[in-house]
Amino acid sequence: METRKIRIGIIGAGIISKEHLEKYEQIEGVEVVALCDTNEMQLKKMAEQFGVPHTYTDFRELLQRDDLDAVDVCLHNNLHAPITIAALEAGKHVYCEKPIAGSYADGKAMIDAAERHGKMLHVQLSFIYQIETMAAKMLIDEGKLGKLYHARSTGHRRRGRPFVDGYATKEFNRKATASGGALFDMGVYRISQLLYLMGLPKVKTITGKTYQEVAMDEKRREISGFDVEELGVGFVRFEGGLTLDIIEAWAIHLNGFEGSSLVGNVGGVRLPGHTSQGDTPFSYHTQVADMDMDATFDLGYANYRWHQLRDNTDAYDSSQKHWIAALQGRVELLPTAEIALQTILVSEGIYLSDRLEREVTAEEVIEASVSTAIKL
Asked: Which residues, in sequence order, are bridge partners of residue 95?
């Protein structure tokens, strides 16, 4: 097995960067050699904690290093495009946090830059690597769902808005830094998961609405400048007849949603969710001998067998393991950048539909999308 040492530089030393560093520690053949952040105190603390030998307060200096295989961008959404494009132009492969950027226009510019410079661009879409996603993909590939026709994306937090409900920083709540709220922060995981399972169908039209209605601490509202959605709902039509409905909540007066689902004319799957009765497992639904059947699987044992019997199964255990395996040349990189771009198209379509109070076409969304990138 190829285990060539991959040398990584990380830009950003916040909460997400810490998660990435923890994951890199668990992957053989990876060395994080450089870390960058404008907050010198936080930068020093993180570098010491994880033993990163080189630190920078200017990302341009990090990019000048000629010993880096790739750069990992762990910044707020509207910094993704300028930093990623600069890294690609510096000859580095790039792993970028979700969402791909703050707008479709910026995400497309990132993909174009990767193609122009012949570098790989990978976006963190962690739900794609869940064992349940793999199981659903196998069922779909073996025809156990038949012709796919509808999917449902559901994401629930009761009161889980960043900063105002006690978690994370105020920058998550501002269009100036994040562009969007619940849809950009958490919806991206489930929408991208379903787009992947559906085979990345081409979007035709989108309709939707966003809300900010649940009471919040007024002092924290003022400090954060909260101007994004806490709830987003939408409906998407794809070429070929597929449809997708969406509800993504940072805050809602309900005690849970059933998990996301995908149905075909032969069977359907439900992905894990959260309800008042507890977490719901991955399940498969079909009919056998004219009887309705609901089934669950021993995914733990299946995963064990796959790792024992199949090549490179570990390359799909997580987003970062997949990224490193692709950099090592062990597997071909999944089209996460393209999936992430279509995901942001859907979210931006919901925003545009809300503003115009009508259904919008994919072409309208693309035409209306403008850069939200922060000038460096």
From this structure: 72, 122
Q: Edge-to-edge strand order for the sheet containing 30-36?
A: 54-56, 30-36, 6-11, 70-73, 93-96, 121-123
pLDDT at 277 over 90: no
Encoded tokens for 232? 């987003």
Helix, strand or coil, per DSSP, at residue 151: strand
Instruction: Give dist(CA 10, CA 58) in Å, integer.
Output: 12
CA angle 330, 331, 337 (to 5 degrees): 135
Q: CA Rg, the chain, in Å? A: 21
CB-facing half-sphere around the CA of 303: CA atoms within 13 A: 15
Task: Note the pTM of the prediction, 2 decimals.
Answer: 0.95
Distance of CA 169 to the CA centre of its chain: 19
Instruction: Answer yes or no: are the C-beta atoms of 34 and 68 closer than 8 Å.
Output: yes
Q: How confident is the model at residue 1 (pLDDT cuts 50, 70, 90)?
A: very low
Q: Give Dmax (Cα) for the chain.
A: 66
Q: How many CB atoms lie within 10 A of CB 311?
A: 9
List alpha helices for 121-203, DSSP H: 131-141, 175-178, 182, 188-197
Q: What is the pLDDT of residues 170-204, one digit of tens each?
A: 999 999 999 999 999 999 999 999 999 999 999 99
Residue closest to 247 by CA, chosen among 162, 114, 155: 155
How remote is the C-alpha of 344 from its chain's centroid?
A: 10
